[in-house]
Structure formats: C-alpha cells, structure tokens
Write a structure and sequence with these properties.
single chain, about 180 residues, alpha+beta, 2 domains, 6 helices, 4 strands, about 40% helix
Length: about 180
C-alpha cells in the first residue's frame, strides 16, 4: 500500500524493488500497487540478456514440453524443517535458525549481509535487525559484516553499487577463504 500512496497525488506508483523508480498508476481506485515500476523498467533487459546468452536445449520447443515443466513444478515445496524441530513448516521460508546453528557449530563461519537503501522488498535495516536478533552468543556477532549501497533490491542494477558490491565481495572472499591459508 505504501508504494501506491507515496506519490498518489502525482498519479504515480513507487517501485517496490527500488523506490527511485516510479510509473503511472494503473488503477487510481485500487488499494495497492498493480505493478512494480522498477521491474517494468529493467526486466526486459534481463530477459533479453538471458535469451541471448543461455544455451538452447534441443528439447522444450513446443507447448507440450512447457506444459510438462509446469506439471513438474506443482510438486515443489517450500516446506522447511528447521534445526531441532520435529516437522517441516509449510509457511514462509525462514532459514535464520539454520544460520544461527551454523554459526554456533562453526564459529569460524563469516557472513556478509548486503542491501540497497531504496529497497522496499527487503528494507535495508531488516538484514541488520534479523542478524542482531539471531540466537547466538554476542561474540559471534563479530563474524557478520554489513554493506549497504545507494541502490534498490538488485544492487548490481546500479553501476556504482555493482562495482562496490564486487569489491566488497572479492575482499570478503579473500579474507575468509581458509583454503589458501
């Protein structure tokens, strides 16, 4: 609803994945945004690049093959059994308990959290908040580092943020790669 209301007086919908994007409000009477202007603005570039670069399989050329893929997809399940729980949970996937266990079992594990300031899908403070509320000893908080960028959900869609993300990731890998030490 926030995306819908923020620029309503200008007849615009605000981007969910990147609030720097705005587009015309499709239905002024609707309660929520009808689309994401960021996706509308960038998706065609990603689809075009994917179609150009992907290998063309010999199969999957006709409608029957596509329907077969759709039939298989119905068996996918997001149910996840968290550590020390007897059953899987069919709700929204939450792997934070798994991360807490992984950090406790391997206190040498390092984690890098990244995000974009203009992201409403995963607001930048959300990652920090979740990590600071992990059920882990306070000493393990030092294993988690944070990098935020002047971009949206897809940090790499902004050229300056892409370079910074690359540099931070490369540095993180160099510092945490225990295979070369």
């Amino acid at each position: 609803m926030f995306e819908k209301k923020l620029q309503e007086d200008q007849g615009l919908t605000t981007g969910r994945l990147d609030t720097r994007f705005a587009g015309p409000d499709i239905d002024p009477l609707s309660k929520e945004a009808d689309y994401d202007p960021q996706s509308a603005g960038l998706s065609s570039a990603y689809v075009s690049a994917f179609n150009r670069l992907r290998p063309r399989p010999a199969r999957l050329r006709g409608r029957q093959d596509l329907q077969a893929v759709r039939r298989r997809r119905k068996f996918w399940s997001f149910e996840h059994q968290q550590p020390n729980q007897p059953n899987g949970f069919p709700g929204v996937l939450n792997v934070m308990p798994d991360l807490a266990v992984a950090l406790k079992v391997n206190p040498q594990l390092k984690v890098m959290v990244t995000g974009g300031y203009y992201d409403l899908a995963t607001p930048y403070y959300e990652g920090w908040y979740e990590m600071h509320h992990l059920p882990i000893p306070a000493s393990l908080q030092a294993n988690i580092e944070y990098h935020y960028y002047p971009s949206g959900h897809m940090v790499y869609a902004n050229e300056g943020s892409l370079k910074a993300l690359h540099d931070h990731t490369a540095d993180f890998i160099r510092r945490t790669d225990n295979l070369t030490r």
